[in-house]
Amino acid sequence: MTSDHGVVADSANPDVVLVGGGIMSATLAALFGIVAPDWSVTVFEAGPALAGESSDAWNNAGTGHSALCELNYTPAGPDGRVDASKAVGINEQFQVSRQFWSHLVRRGMTASPRDFISPVPHVSFVTGDEGRRYMRNRYSALKAEPLFGELEHTEDPAELARWIPLVMAGRDPEQAVAATRSIAGTDVNFGALTKLLLADAENRGVAAHTHQRVEEIERETDGRWKVTVRDTRSGEPRTVRARFVFVGAGGGALPLLQRTGIPEIAGFGGFPVSGMFLRTTSQELVRMHQAKVYGQAAVGAPPMSVPHLDLRLIDGEHSLLFGPYAGFSPKFLKAGSMFDLPLSVRPNNLGSMLGVARTELALTKYLIKELLQSRAARHRTLQGFVPEAEEHDWDMITAGQRVQVIKRDPSTSKGMLQFGTELIVGADGTIAGLLGASPGASTAVAAMLTLLERCFPDRTQAWRPLIQEAIPSYGHKLSEEPELLAQVRKDTMETLELDG
Fold it and tell me: Residues 433-465: pLDDT tens digits?
């Protein structure tokens, strides 16, 4: 196979193998197209289509996590002060993604950025006196940061009725309410984006295969990795030998990394959680809710359970999603095996897994409570957000599987549950993988840039000018450089058609 640039993809001995056809592999393929266009790259996806698991539009909230509305990124301390550092870091990473997408759009990845991104206000909403105090402190902490300079705040029910009429309709007028809003928010169709990235990569000579399940990744004596792949339709196996392997297979990454035998994966485990959402396609309700609204997680609930009501634009149609409602399956992927969880338990991670089982009793109780909820109980939860919601307008859908990272706490050597992502890199940099979930897709570009720096340190300086051409803020902190931030915002909003 020959690309437009004359690159020959060696199907038996590619330079790079990317496992999984999701947003992470697609992003890394796009980055290799910039820094190493002469390298041959092969993508293996086990499913029948690319972006079929967590990257699929219906398997995530599409928020484009930028910490504009997600309250779990701005925790309050015992004195009530809000720590904005995590929110600033995540927003900074999302700006990196937007710059990179803008570069690819200018280069012809898609005729219309609205194929994958559209402007949607992001709102944080709380109730009660304590919630209102928290929101004041959060607003004060974020407003001082240049990345959040456009954030608005109100405690006026009449103003909120204009911002989020569906949420305010029928609400007790005596209830204390507060919210912040950013009109810089977006809705991202990560499934569409993944397919665009990989289609663009295929035009350059990248070989992307579906129905190809990677079963083994073994180190050979010459330093290459032998990747054993099986066709899920015919059962026919084949092997390729690669200089570099990235395992971006979502929940399937953990067992594959365990099979490589690299010591860096020792001690890591995974806890699968499935998400369910109530969805409505009622255009009357959609017209009343042109925003993404995030609330506060219930006491004892994990950060991933933060309730939110999201406007979605998928395949040209608007709908609303409310959730998540937690579910449980031992599968690590929606199309995975019921044995995924038990088979992931190894002698080197048993301590971590048992440690989490002891310390995360609140999470266990929360999951049991969620699983036992009736349809009526789930509807009452929705009515806490949308007081006038009618049960017949909403249907339950199952979203993607998420595998939360379990790792050893270095300070105690006990297991700890980590809500986020973890990049695992082999000692010599020839293999890497990504574990975990949110903010995941939104920060994929920043995560894959970190991978390039850690896996190819001897090439970083030579690649820097190429990366900076695509991502002007690379090597800088937008939160500390207002002029660069203003220029980046202007350029990305114009290119991604988010300014009108």
Answer: 999 876 778 899 999 999 999 999 999 999 999
